[in-house]
Amino acid sequence: MNIQIDRESRVPVYQQISGKIKEMVLSGRMPPGYRLPPERRLAAALKVNRSTILNAYRELKAGGLVDAHVGRGTAVVARRFAGAEPQRAQVLPWRQFARAGVSREDDPLLRDLLELTERRDLVSLSVGLPAPELLPLDTVRDILGRILADVGPPSLLHCPTEGLTVLREAVSRQMASRGVQCGAPDVLITSGSQQGLDLMARILIDPGDMVVVEEPSFFVALQVFRSAGARLIGVPVDQDGIRTDVLESIFSRFHPKLVYTLPTFQNPSGAVMSLDRRRHLLAIAYRYQIPILEDDPYHDLRYDGEPLPPLKALDMYGHVAYLSSFSKVLFPGLRLGWLVAQRPVIRQLALAKQSLDLHSNTLGQHLVQRFLDDGHYDDHLRRVRPVYARRRDAMDTVLRANARDHMTWRRPDGGFYFWCQLPPSVSLARLLAEAAEEKVSFLPGGACFAGEPAEPHIRLNFSFPSEEQIGDGVLALMRAMRRAIDEPARGRHRGTPPIV
Amino acid sequence: MNIQIDRESRVPVYQQISGKIKEMVLSGRMPPGYRLPPERRLAAALKVNRSTILNAYRELKAGGLVDAHVGRGTAVVARRFAGAEPQRAQVLPWRQFARAGVSREDDPLLRDLLELTERRDLVSLSVGLPAPELLPLDTVRDILGRILADVGPPSLLHCPTEGLTVLREAVSRQMASRGVQCGAPDVLITSGSQQGLDLMARILIDPGDMVVVEEPSFFVALQVFRSAGARLIGVPVDQDGIRTDVLESIFSRFHPKLVYTLPTFQNPSGAVMSLDRRRHLLAIAYRYQIPILEDDPYHDLRYDGEPLPPLKALDMYGHVAYLSSFSKVLFPGLRLGWLVAQRPVIRQLALAKQSLDLHSNTLGQHLVQRFLDDGHYDDHLRRVRPVYARRRDAMDTVLRANARDHMTWRRPDGGFYFWCQLPPSVSLARLLAEAAEEKVSFLPGGACFAGEPAEPHIRLNFSFPSEEQIGDGVLALMRAMRRAIDEPARGRHRGTPPIV
After folding, report:
1. Interchain CB contacts (distance < 8 Å): A and B
2. Whole-number pLDDT of residue A98
């Protein structure tokens, strides 16, 4: 509220204020229902005592211009101008205006999982986050200071939709270390790999289009494709990755629009697609002319064995669009990922991105670029890999000692997760409720399937919790499991939301 | 490439390397076409001399396993495994897989404008950016340091999709200063107001839905609505804002899905909707039950006169969804804006945002929150407003002295733009080309209309260039204008892309 106070005037300050407000009410500038600022705030804004504002508001109330109610503050009374408003107007029911099917499409599961990480009293085995205590905050602070000094104002201004050129160059060097030769123009910086998924759906998927996904698969990707109207076909994953024999028969029968695959440390199964399968997948994609979206966020997080080349490194005919992220190794909160694809695809993606968010945040892009170019990314990898390997081993050990009666799993060579199969009799809704009582969370597996899964699964994360929390969390989960198995029909849990 | 070198071994290091690579090629781990890392990079990675790698590669070439071409590096030869690849595979024509109509929807204008700001040799009167030299970089550095120290790792981790609670609270206090009483749960943090537009379209607009827009309007919003498949109806804006008399007849005839309006310092016209019109717009929106999207990024950038309450402050029945941004006052590169609406709407928007980018970048949200809560936002406003007022006056002065023969305009009371009407004979495509030669850019007005504009217009920005650049830029523009008027048919400009 813009009120000029004349300290020289003989009119008391509180009357200057009430007079000005009265003027604004009578002129209609403050219409009926308009709420005056809280007294404390207005006092601070006008640099007067709170009692001055109290007096001003009191005078306005006495004049019948405003009214005060506990909890709702002071508002311009409605009847004075009531004639100008339609009598029967009601709060607009926005839901009736929603786009057809909008509420069906979006599942709050992911959002709800994120909220869980903020709870201090709970061991989270549910999320896919790097270990927060390992984040190199001092390096971040130094680099941010240098960016502001060296780059100056442009570090807070716009950048090209495709991303900062220096970052796209750094990413293309990163890609070379993964066996993919590409240049900056082949790279699009995205606001997290989440946006990469959305962008790909946005340029490719018409409602009714068929998309082949692994079963299980990254549940968020399934949401994105469903939300674009795709029909999902699930193809099973075994220890060597997606079953390319099944895939071939699906290609020949349905000619799908896209195959979505996570060949390396598949989320959630942890499987690594064998080199033979990789070559077979490409061969049949060439034969049936099917584009492939390769999602590879865990590439650098291998704890045992030899790395395999991404599909993109083996692809000779531009069939593969490659998606990865800085969120699993560095900073999930910066929301930065990247796509590598044929240049016309990058151009189309950039046009779509322009209308989504114009570009990804500039300061974060500078930060990640310097992390890569100054060698901090590799240093950080060297530091976190042994920690994650130990956490994986700790989880495997405590599972072996306590969970063998109830679950089967394979120890993964990399990535962030154990994927555990449960007996068919276990209700995951029930288990979720019991686990919440035991203060431990996990990802129920149902969301990872295109259709109805044959057996219940859960995904357990070992990167975010400490070794101690992993021990405690698995023991708590096993207590919950025993109750879920022993007393399957206990009534008080009936209200549990059926997330799976 | 993971190659262990045994320094104690009697096998020369270069042969250890070539042997390992040979093994990977023959096992298929490095398939045909696979490119070996550049010699320099592999030498650095393995901590050996470059000549060692040269020798290793030479040996592999001699064995016929790899081949080297200038500019393409060293690659595994293809014929060895050619049998396994289909003979007629070709580069995948991704375009044929594009979603129906995807290429028509996205106009590169905005992206192209952003690129112009990076050109040092050009006076940009085309963008809508704050003055970069006024950005308080020292404050930014101090605050970032404090965030990393106080908040720690969570400042780089995920945050809720709706935004950081502390920022949503700070925004709700900001809204109170604009006359809108709301709480944190009524606020959604977006990745720029660009994403706010996209989100609103995403939850509301089905293909074929009618959206009423002002004429002229913010061209980016028109793109977003078109891209969602909306049919746009334009309603003229005069000096008192949108013509609500026209609007009323459109409401009664068409019952549109949404009205999109910028009531305060309308982009591009600079018009401010009068209080009477604001109340009339709300009254007819109530009567015909039409939702309103109010876009208000320039609210705090008033240089003369008294502020008017936003529609949202006058709205008693939840008809208004309110969109604003930190990009015009603070940092466009952080991509942060916000929406205020009924809580069920906020919930629906958050579900949609979850699948777009999960959440907006966390560190930027902390930065803006401290800017607001520590009073730096208001300090900064006090510093920039007089500068922008002087730049506006400078532009008005130089236009009065030089442009009266060719254009008409009104000096705006706030915002960032002059909106200038040109004689019907001027071709904007021609003017753009001449202006490029004179090294000055502007926004051609055609993109701001839902239909075909009656007269040509251009939008000139005065916030980004200095007073000196404004003078030079307008003079350069007038030279271009005279040439565009004098020689309308000069052949060599025929190739200019018809942006309008």
Report:
1. 360
2. 78
| Cis check: omega of the bond before A154, within 30 degrees of 0 | no
User: CA A65 to CA A76: how far, in whole Å?
Assistant: 6
Q: Note if the pTM is more than 0.90.
A: no
Q: Tell whether B352 lies on the interface with A, counting CB pairs under 8 A.
A: yes
Q: What residues contact residue A235 under an 8 Å CB cut-off, 6+ apart?
A: A212, A213, A214, A215, A242, A243, A246, A247, A250
**HSE (CB half, 13 Å, CA atoms) of A332?**
20
Q: What's the pLDDT tens digit per position in B219-228?
A: 999 999 998 9
Instruction: Give pLDDT tens digits for B106-135.
Output: 566 666 666 666 667 889 999 899 999 999
Q: Are A164 and A365 in contact (CB under 8 A)?
A: yes
232-251 in A: which are within 8 Å (CB) of B?
none
With pLDDT > 90 as the criterion, what percentage of chain B qualifies?
A: 67
- H helix runs in A155-243, sequence order: 165-177, 192-204, 219-227
pLDDT at residue A117 is higher than 80 = no
Say how far apart CA A377 and CA A364 lie, in whole Å.
Answer: 14
Is B307 an 8 Å CB contact of chain A?
A: yes
ipTM: 0.80
For residues B281 and B315, give the distance between their C-alpha atoms in angstroms, rounded to a whole number.
10
Which residue is associated with the tokens 């050009």?
B122
Which helix or strand (DSSP H or E) is residue B429 part of?
A: helix B428-437
Residues of chain B in contact with residue A342, where contact means CB-CB under 8 angstroms, are 91-92, 94
Q: In angstroms, rounded to a whole number, what is the distance separating the alpha carbons of residues A278 and A312?
A: 10
Query: Hey, is the C-beta of B137 within 8 angstroms of any chain A C-beta?
Result: yes
Which among A218, A354, A368, A369 is the top mutation candidate for probing chain B, defined by the most B β-carbons within 10 Å of its own β-carbon? Answer: A354
State the first-to-last Cα distance of chain B, in angstroms, to the nearest integer.
Answer: 52
Per-residue pLDDT band at B326 (split at 50, 70, 90): very high
* Residue type at position A446: G
pLDDT in tens, A402-460: 999 989 999 999 999 999 999 988 999 899 989 999 999 999 999 999 988 889 999 99
Closest CA to A256 of A219, A192, A212: A212
How far is it, in rounded angstroms, from Cα A394 to Cα A476? Answer: 15
Cβ-nearest to B363 among A1, A84, A333 = A333
Element (H, E) at B110: helix B109-117
Q: Are residues A332 and A131 in contact, defined by beta-carbon separation less than 8 angstroms? A: no
Tens of pLDDT along A269-278? 999 999 999 9
Query: Counting Cβ atoms within 10 Å, is residue A369 exposed (0-12), middle (13-18) or buried (19+)?
Result: buried
Whole-number pLDDT of residue A118: 62
Partner residue opposite A132 with nearest CB, options B157, B204, B351: B157
